[in-house]
Amino acid sequence: MNLKARDIMVKEVKSINGDCSVYKAVELLINSNINCLPVLDRDNCFIGIVTETDLLYVDKKLNPSSFYAYSEANIPINRRILKDSINELKSLKISQIMTTEVVSVDEDATIEELIDIIVNKGIKTIPVLKNNRLIGIVTRKNILKYYL
């Protein structure tokens, strides 16, 4: 069987608007146990993606001490600095930090093409688009599931 993106994609995808705050994205990622959020404009067209890595990078720029606290260095976080960092995250918009150069596929992409993107481009989640509208995503787990 020649599997296509449409056969294995997740169709119910959590997404976020580019005008939402970075803080809201962090909440959504954590509460939904996902690693990225497709970003849609007001017309629900796909305009980018925000990943856990994007968010950690922003936090590193805002507050280097909190970045090191994530690492094995285990440097204590100053509470005032952390509060200031959280306030800045609440005012920063997703459109300011999202990745706009996103590798995406259409629903007819083969499983071989999907694997090639994941392996050779190091991408964990691939948006599936139709007429610039998000219709699903394919993750590494979606592909691995079909090997069982």
From TrEMBL:
InterPro entries per the UniProt record, alphabetical: CBS_dom, CBS_dom_sf, Diverse_CBS-Domain
SMART domains given in the database record: CBS (SM00116)
Keywords (A to Z) from UniProt: CBS domain
Keyword GTP-binding: no
Domain of life from the UniProt record: Bacteria
Record-linked Gene3D superfamilies: CBS-domain
Entry-linked Pfam families: CBS (PF00571)
Domain CBS span(s) in chain numbering: 9-65, 98-148
Residue ranges of the TM segments: none
Name the UniProt record assigns to this protein: CBS domain-containing protein
Protein's organism: Alkaliphilus pronyensis
